[in-house]
Request: fold
Amino acid sequence: MSLSQETDENLMLRFGRGDGAAFEALYRRHESRIFRYLYRNVRNEASANDLMQEVWFAVAHNAQRYQPTAKFTTWLFTLAHHRMVDMIRRARPQQSLDAVDPDDATAAATLKDRLPADRGTEPEVRAQAQDEAAALMNAVAQLPPDQRAAFLMQAEGELSVEEIAVATGTTFETTKSRLRYARAKLRQLLWEFA
Amino acid sequence: MTSSDEGQDRELLQRYRQASDADPRVPSAAVRAAILEEGRRVAASLSAPNTMEPAGRWKSRRKMSAWGAAAAALLAAIIVAPRFWNDTSPTRATAATNAVIPFNQAARKTESAEASPEPRPVVPVMPVPETRDSALPPSASLLAKAPTLRRAVPPPPPVLIPEQSVEITPLRHPSPSAAPALPPQAANLAQAERIDPVSNYTQRNSGAATPMLSAAAAAGDLVETTQLLDHGALINEQDAAGRTPLMLAVAQNQIDTVRLLLNRGADPGIPDAHGLSPLKLAQQRKFDDIAALLINSGAR
Reply:
């Protein structure tokens, strides 16, 4: 079985036995979703890069202790969430996650320019799709931090409510409530945009 | 939550994922390279089963060093301790060597021993048969049970005893000028102690003295035995228990020495103080080859 067909858990176990290629395959598989989760939470590319390195170093250094009792993605997002909270508390204890980094305030606006053009052939369709994506990202950025983190875990990591509760250290009901409020707010924002 | 809400949630997630997948934002090349490099480094360390943590290696080295130091200390104690035993136990010296000398010689011997910087020669130490161990002091018994050659017994502290208690064997070479050249080891010893080398081969006291020939024979030292015989050592000299060098060589199963002594004229018929002959001793201990040798030499 090639590495691309292995489950995350098997790749992690292989890496724990010294298989460097398994680690690389695992990283390539989850690179984008973890980075986007970090970036959309901290909304600063440099901080997201720092966190990315911390998270994957932690993955590497804890490989021998990894036990496949839960999904690898749950463990990975747990690590990412804890690192992110630690960094925010350490660097900006008094600043909310909602404070927009002035260097990155145009992130949502510039996203429109980076969207691919193959989603529609007509210029009007393409412009509308870009506008909707930018509006959606703006709406996500406006969510409260806890709701945003829960929503991004669900949207990027495809974690279940139970897994999000484990990763964020909250109860199932609290997590369910946060997700419900997050989706409701996003729907409202998108409806207003439409 | 109604089914309509669930449908809207699914649609919302789908729209978000489409927008997110379209975002080409990725980690910087430097971060990616650092992560992958770290993964390779960790994998390499995990794949080496004998690789230990630095602290573990250090602990292991420290443990080895501690054992090495302990072993060195033990070895030093084994080497050095017997010298102190010899220097502090006059009874041991009396029992294990024949170095008890008259009072007037003792003074000269002490002076020369202090003045002589030369290392002491290696000579065989005669193992005393077990039957005699009970008669010896504990330290002498320990020495007697040592079967191998060891460092020369340091000059025992002179035991000052009255002249009349010392029995001196008549010298074969009463004049030093008439004596042949000494073997090197004996010469060194003689020079160190400044006593008559010939008399040193043969003198003994009335205690459990051990002439050098008996010591060499018991140790199976053919060279030393030959040299001592060449220089006049008495081949049938008996110790206090009546044991000849031949008897002691038999007791230690030194068949080559037995053969040498017989060829040099040793009398196989001299029994010890208990009436035990060399042949009987060899037969008791099942030394069949030695027994045959003794029988061929006329022993009964």
Summary: The longest helix of chain A spans residues 20-42. The interface with chain B takes residues 15-20, 22-24, 27, 31-32, 35-36, 39, 45, 48-49, 52-53, 56-57, 60-61, 63-64, 111, 114-116, 119, 132-133, 136-137, 140, 154-156, 180, 183, 186-187, 190 of chain A (CB under 8 Å). Chain A is about 70% helix and 0% strand. Confidence is low (pLDDT under 50) at residues 96-121 of chain A.
